[in-house]
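Apologies for my clumsy wording, but can you show me some protein sequence, whichever is easiest, together with the matching structure tokens, please?
=====
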Amino acid sequence: MEQKRIVILGAGESGVGAAMLAKKQGFEVFVSDMAEIAENYKSQLQSMQVAFEEGRHSEADILNADEVIKSPGIPPTAPLIQALKTRGIPVISEIEFAKRYTKARTVCITGSNGKSTTTMLTYHILKNGGLHVGLAGNIGKSFAAQVATADFDWYVLEISSFMLDDMYQFRADISLLLNITPDHLDRYDYKMENYVRSKMRILQNQTEDDVFIYCADDEEITRALAGMTIRPKTYAFSIRHQVPQGAYLENNELFININQQEPFTMSISELALQGKHNIHNSMASGIVAKVIELRNESIRESMGNFKNIPHRLEHVARISGIDFVNDSKATNVNSTWYALESMNSDVVLIMGGVDKGNDYQMLKDLVQSKVKAIVCLGKDNKRIHEAFEDDVEVIVNTFSAFEAVQIAYHLAKKGDTVLLSPACASFDLFKNYEDRGNQFKLAVKEL
């Protein structure tokens, strides 16, 4: 039988991981990247003796694939993807590919905001609870690479809508949907219903033996669920009202009720993650832990000692009584809303970058009540000026993290917070949100 040819588009973490697994499974593998491949990934491909190209996509070497694994960043409208589909060549995600070769059970977490935090918290709880668990997806090491080299019983996977778009046979044992707010609409024809449909794919292929966990406070989710037949066992979480099965809030106590198990309770003041949105994230992770039947003491301990991820409401320093907070991972308006909602002081807000069709309307009330000045950090700040010129007295343009921090420091006074929460992607001035956050931290250290 002829050897199956797998072509991988994109040689980042997921692409190189997919190459590793495909090679292990005995496939002929070819990796193609339009950009330059990072040195560490290039040397990995070379040591595995995987053929690759960079700086181009050679159609002759790609259109003869039996199957293509593409980077989530490549849009389905790309001419090359269209050409593959015309020829009937399957195009899938690395996650879909990796799941074929593992018997491990998966907790799959998606949503517009809070995915990384909830994924990390869930992983932390499961690991501390004694499970042999891996962390992958949009975060950490590639899922495919871990399937090739490790032997975990469980994986906690952070799943983006782009990944879901390229998943067909994939099935989550436990799926978790945190929220749906406008994001990446440029990828969905600027239609919210297309984006919602993409997020609901987290439920696809789930059976009566599986579990689906969702936020009952989210209007988009409840509206979408009303028109669907839901097969898995379902648990909701809410901070507004009691739910019969799932998690809710009462007198600042978090309650989790699952089947006939002893209920879980914890005061929200003891949670490591503070702020209203983080109660949702803690509830979601707590339900997962209860479904897996971890001990209440172990869950409580993990929820109390968790350390959040970098670039997400990360306290950098206090200088002259001014707090500097790095929330560079806030690449959409909703994330910035959550950041402002959790602030208890006057804020000098650093925002801006690549605008993905943002609607700043939802920030107006919080900006009016909490923000004394906006420092724009991006090449084109026109829409930020238009949105907030009536709400704050000072809006300044800057073109580097250093300049933004210097100006914000002079605009703030003792007791204020300088918050980097951009509401935009970072690609105009930075490599990615990590680079933006790191440059911000460096600039703060230089004050």
Summary: Residues 276-291 form the longest helix (16 residues). The chain has a mean pLDDT of 92. The chain has three domains: 5-92, 96-305, 314-445. The chain is about 35% helix and 20% strand.
